[in-house]
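Before any further analysis, backbone shapes were mapped to integers, which produced the following:

***
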Amino acid sequence: MIFQDFQPIAAIATTPAGINQLQPLLQNHTVTLWIPASLVSPTSSFPPSLPRPLPYPGSLKDQIAALWTSHRSFIFCLATGAVVRLIAPLLQDKSSDPAVIVVDESGEFVISLCGGHQGGADQLARLVALQLGMTPVITGAAHRIKVPGIDVLGIPFGWQKGDGDWTGVSAAIARQEPVEVIQEAGSTLWQKPLPEGHPFEWVEPATGHRSRGTGNGGWGTGARIWISPALGELDTRQQTASIQHPAPSPTANRPPIPEVHWHPRVLWVGIGCERGSSKRLIEHAVREVLRSQQLSEQAIAGVATIDLKADERGLVEYCRDRNLPCRYFPAALLRTIVTPNPSAIVEAEVGTPSVAEAAALAGASLTAAALTLSADPFQPPLLRVPKQIIRLDGEPGAVTIAVAQSPQEYTGRIGKLWLVGTGPGQLDQMTPAAQTAIAQADLVIGYSLYLDLIRPLLRPGQIVEASSITQERQRAERAIALANWGLTVAVVSSGDCGIYGMAGLVFEQLQAQGWDGHQPEVQVFPGITALQAAASRVGAPLMHDFCAISLSDLLTPWEVIEKRLMAAAQADFVVALYNPRSQTRTRQIEMAQKIFLDCRAAGTPVAIVRSAYRADEQITLTTLAEFLTVPIDMLTIVLIGNQSSRFHANWFVTPRGYLGFERPVS
């Protein structure tokens, strides 16, 4: 699932050493490895658990040419110069070329060679480097100044690229010249991770008010970014925009600056039509209405109409061919929506005085109301274009078009929820899969302390949302809302996310919302849990039956916790106590000690491990009778041994055989 956005992926190795370097990428069957036919023989040995490499019989040049147009990504393990010569004749345009990365055969570096932004090579290089334990080499200017590439800025939000000088704007950003951002629609989440010193300044569309970020000032504007449902032609925008630019400056007579246009999909097209209206007529009607209002077809989120039109062939074909969602509403709902142009004739015909206007508003309202993405009050949709009736010579029928603008864009993506366990805290204690999930996610959400520990994995432009330790439920709700919207969200827990972590809470919230088990897609990435990390720092205390018990009574009544402590103590389990003491909850650990002293010897080994594997790690070996003299808090794990447990040379050991019992080998 992590490499889904880059598939199909072709990997190429020409030596046994190259094959060995790339083989780990085959584990999840996401990469096809091609090798020379000369390296395949009856005596060739490949791991039986991995897909076998595919041989190519001819030249590598011909093989790459054959794969070029059918693959989104290429991973080479051979000399960079050789790769350059192989792909040079195939390159056409950075908007369509695949991602090309090169893996160093010595196992040190992964180089983003071609298609860094739009092809995704920069991100693919990061992910492959994490999987293989190498260092990514990324040389683009956006990476250097830690801002998202302007040509991929809107992809997580489903924005569509419009007209513009993308190379010119990228060059201005690379020079860190001031860049105007005029955002009339769409999410502003992309602004949150911008670093200090970024080159952007914001221009308020309605007033022309400017607010500079912390970028370089005083040079004059070097480029402009429009984020709007409006058409991208510069002359059209200058005629219709309400922005009032400041008085001429010394740079007022400079040549026009480069600008680009992103179109958030915020427009819902309400359609009413006579029975039998053709797809051609509907296409013409939508195009003409939008053009007359200087609105871009790329900003269309979807189509909305009355449910009586669910079988209207022309409408169904129009939505199908453009991959647009079509929302059908009953007349009983549409008639409750206030519109400026109701019709008694329409009401007599279909049971509601408005179809196009009411359906457009209903579609836009559904998009906005389904999302809980901010604490701001709900904003109703705007009827951007009142209904217009369109006919076309030579085509039977008539089409009524109205357009509403939603305050929230439609992404057109299936969201993903990645529930990630980060282990004890050090990056080398995380699984490569967990590291890769965090690096790939559009947005990472978690407790602020845990996010600080994984900060080296975060990439420029990646959205990060931190919250306090007591806001687990809010984090789960926020993550689900963002994933339902279409983002890939990594929810971070320390240790293992499924052991006293966020995974269970997220699944509970999904169930409460009637989740179908498919959308958003959910994947759990395990981590080294706290009891494993603590045990590894003191020896082998968990070599026999053990259990974990949390002393927190926030979600479990103390009476239940007390019963579990008694049962575990009487059954002589080795026990790991989680959440042993907080600032306000101090007596539970004392009561737990008393319960265990009633069942076990005072000298039973106990380990107090705080912040295992972190810089402030503290470890104390003590006994059941004495362990309360050691400082204990919420970052502490308390390990209590069983009757067989012992200390030896400052190590905590629980024998595999209980009380010396060991069955003879037959």
